[in-house]
Structure formats: C-alpha cells, structure tokens
Amino acid sequence: MSGGSMADAPVAGTSVPVQTADSAAHTDHLAHNYHPLDVTIESGNGAWVTDVTGRKYLDCLAAYSALNFGHGHPALVAAAKAQLDRITLTSRAFHNDQLGPFADALAKLAGKDMVLPMNTGAEAVETGIKVARAWGYRVKGVEPGRATIIVADGNFHGRTTTIISFSNDEDARADFGPYTPGFVSVPYGDAAALEAAIDANTVAVLLEPIQGEAGILVPPAEYLPAVREITTRNNVLFIADEIQSGLGRTGATFQCDNVGVVPDLYLLGKALGGGIVPVSAVVGNADILGVLQPGQHGSTFGGNPLAAAVGSAVVELLATGEYQERARMLGDRLLADLRALLGHGVIAVRGAGLWAGIDIDPALATGRRVCELLMERGVLAKDTHGSTIRFAPPIVVEAADLDWAVDQLEAVLLELGAH
Ligand SMILES: *Cc1c(COP(=O)(O)O)cnc(C)c1O
C-alpha cells in the first residue's frame, strides 16, 4: 500500500505561515456554495497532501470517502492512464469493452446480478428513486402517480431538487422549492415508526446504513435487520445508500454486511471512482433493476470506458478484502484513541471502521475552529453540524500517522482550554 510517512509530518509547535485564500486560491470568480478551509492543495500521495507552499497535511477527510484508497493509488492511476490512451468516451449508443467486465465484477462483489452505471452519487440516488417508483407501478401494482418512498430524518442523499425535497436541513432545502412530493420522513433508528409509515402506496425505504453528514450516526444494531424484515414482509424495497459508508470504509465491503443485512438495491458512488473520476452505480437483481427498458433512463457519461476501467480497478482492490480488514484494524485503533479524549474536550465519539464522528464540547470551540487549528498542525478534517468533526482518512493511512493525527487533536483541545 502506498502512503506518506511520519517524516513528512510538520513538527508540532513549529510555526509555518498559513497561506491566504487571496494569495493562493484565486476564488474571486467562484460561486460561494462552499466555505473551504484556507489551504490550497497542489498534490497528494497516499494519505498526505501538499499545499502550494510545499507544506504537507494528513488528509483526514479523504474527500468524504471518495479517496478510500488514497491519493494517487498506483493501481488506480495505472488503470486510468492506460485507458486514457485507448478510449475515454463512447456514449451508451454503442458498447465499449470496459463496461461489461466492470458490471460483472461489481455485481459479483455485491452478490447481485445487475448494475446500472451513472456518475455522481446524487444520480445513483435519483436512479434508485426512479427504479423504485417504476417497480411500484409495474410490479407491485401501486395506483399511477401514488408511489411513496420512506426516508429518515437527518438524511443526506445529495443535492438535486428531488433529493433536497426530503432533506430536513434548511440550508440544503430553503428557497429551492417547489419540492418533489412522494416522500415520507420518519425518525432514524426507529423501526416501529418506519413500519407505522408504510401503506399500500409505499414502494421503498431509502436509508443510509450510517448517517454520514448527520455526524456519523450509527443506528442501534437491530435497526437495519428490523428494516429488512419489515420491508420484506410488506413487499417494499429496501434501498441502502452506501455511497459514503460502502466500499471498505466501515471495515466491510458494505456497512450492511456488518449488520448481516442484504438490501434490494445498493447505491454506490464516491470511492467507486477511486478519487479519479466520478463513478456511481445502482446494484440489484434483475427482478427490480430490470424494470427499466431502453430509453427510460440514461446518462451521456454513465458507464464511459474511463470510468469503467477505474471502477474495475477499484473492485479488484476490494475483492481481496485487505482494505476492509485494514479499515477495521485501524478503525479500532482510531476509536480507542479518540475515546481516551472523552471528558477532555470531547463529549462523544461514534464510528464504524475507519470513520469517526467526534463531538467537541461546544463550550470550548466550534467544529470549524477545531478544524482550523488542526490545519495549522497539519491535519485536514471537516466539521459538520456545529461542534462535530469527523476523521475518515484514506484506508492506506499508516497507523503511526493516525496516532499522530489524534495527538494533534489532543493538542488542539488543550490549546482551547480542555484538561
Ligand atoms: C456524498 C453522498 C451522496 C451524493 O453524492 P454526490 O457524488 O456528491 O452527488 C449521496 N448519498 C450519500 C450518503 C453521500 O454521502
């Protein structure tokens, strides 16, 4: 596995001038829909990135788990480079020689028999919604125009107008209506509430097995098995959005594996493109995904040969199980180290595999402030919901680097007045 080394780490306490957005980032003509930390990255290798001044940082966000295999993974870069020289785009009007093998490999990895390739995660979610509705009308026999899908409070499934229609996050939703109807939201983690919301028009339940953007919320162990039992009994599809939780992050190929559940549809994205190109997919069996006929859904770029070549290389990395094992091992270590900070500026730690949500005592600082101070110490992380920060470095991260990152967090908390 590739990765940086401890020698690259900035020495704690060394003061390095922090670049400014004005001097380095040139953001004058960028829309304001993000508020990035004041660092301008130029290159990356493994779990480490380097900014335009030559300073190195440990990447503890990994592009929201799109970089599970790290920056510049040699096998993924080689697959992309080789495909760049052959052909990159054909459109689905013709076959290409990369897509079929990618679908075979991904279906096998997921234990399903059909793959529908798209590009972004939101497109995979939209595809899942369309498939569930078409299945509802064509197979289940729901009255035309009446299909509903049950989702969970606190969900994050992407940014399209339909998806934000069932978000509870006012920043994500306000002023973007009118909203798409047909969604019912219930409390996350409460199987009884979910069952009570099911009626004859319910076609699917759409859930994140762990709610990532909500703060790495891990539901009770019995929740997803109960959802599986309830959906099966009521002839309702169970759609698992594993776009962030899947593909190794939680110490398994899918978080559903960790709780012994097989959904009807997996929604995949982020790490499926190896951090190189956007690759997403809906994976399921032909009795469900097969409802779509030619002309009913598609994408100009979905399934392009470059994406398929990279996706195949990603599946090959996952097929050995070594990344899942590494995420489990390093994750146990990370969570144990973080739990040692409980009561010392940290009020809660949650997680699965190499994916941790850390609630900072709001009396000390905001999550944003903690992330700024971490950045000054060479660790890049991202806050969510006020005082939560998350650690989700690439799975290739070295154990010693992970320990060092937790040491930096401890130092930041002490600096902020924790005991
Ligand atoms: C990131 C994410 C999405 C959306 O993916 P995009 O590629 O940003 O469109 C959907 N669902 C979950 C759970 C995600 O984390």
Short description:
This protein is α/β, with parallel strands linked by helices. It has helices at residues 21-25, 62-65, 74-86, 99-110, 121-140, 161-165, 170-173, 191-197, 223-233, 255-258, 286-289, 305-319, 322-339, 367-376, 399-415; strands at 41-45, 48-51, 56-59, 114-118, 148-152, 183-186, 202-207, 237-241, 265-268, 280-284, 346-351, 356-360, 379-380, 382-384, 388-391.
Could you describe the 3D structure shown?
With 419 residues, this protein is of the alpha/beta class. It has two domains: 143 residues, Aspartate Aminotransferase, domain 1, CATH 3.90.1150.10; 246 residues, Type I PLP-dependent aspartate aminotransferase-like (Major domain) (Aspartate Aminotransferase, domain 2, 3-Layer(aba) Sandwich). 36% of the residues lie in helices and 16% in strands. The chain has 15 helices and 15 strands. The strands form three sheets. Strands 4-10-9-8-7-5-6 form a seven-stranded mixed beta sheet, with helices on both faces. A hairpin with a 2-residue loop joins strand 1 and strand 2. Helix 13 packs parallel to helix 15. The longest helix has 20 residues. The protein is globular. Bound molecules: pyridoxal-5'-phosphate (PLP). Pyridoxal-5'-phosphate (PLP) binds next to helix 5. The site of pyridoxal-5'-phosphate (PLP) has 15 residues, from helix 5.
